[in-house]
Amino acid sequence: MIAASRTVVLDETVPARGPWSAVVRAGEQLEIIDLHGNQAVDCLLYSAADHTDRYSAQATVTAQRNIFLTTGSVLRTEIGTALMTVVDDQVGNHDTVAGACSQESNTLRYGHHTRHQHACVENFLAEGLKWGLGKRDLVSNINWFMNVPVEADGTLGIVDGLSAPGKSLTLRAEIDTLVLVSNCPQINNPCNGFDPTPVRMVVTR
């Protein structure tokens, strides 16, 4: 929910299966809205001033002692720099460990007939080119809205999401942060309800 006291500086809809990126300035907030529900949003974060200072799943998980993200989670770089903080979360659980789908992982998990399908890694590479980023700059990502339970034996599952139409989360930028998104195109597991849909990105200050 956009506070009345805040000014909208960007409001864009990311089409189903599409990429998106923007620099969110320190103090600004990014609201990610799951328009139709059950849509996974893969995300990478970089310091806008130095793209080598980037989101680290390991540093983030270690600092908060929790593999899941929700309100209060601080998204950190490898050296501990705070990039963004989750300041509001209507879903309550977001994944840090399942990674991004790729044409290679589709083939491995779902069969060779899926290799031609577009995937998140391809979205990241295409969108990252706009900012001078390449394959070496891709790291373990966040999966907003994605439900990945972890069993006692360490087994991961990818199951129906916990989100619903119109639910959202809001991130506050602690420094100028480049946000890179793949609105996940996966159709072989339930992370998108087998039907990728658009999401809305709103930046306010």
TrEMBL record:
**Domain DUF1989 residues, every copy:** 12-178
Against Pfam families, the record matches this protein to: DUF1989 (PF09347)
Q: What is this protein called?
A: Urea carboxylase-associated family protein
Organism equals: Nocardia huaxiensis
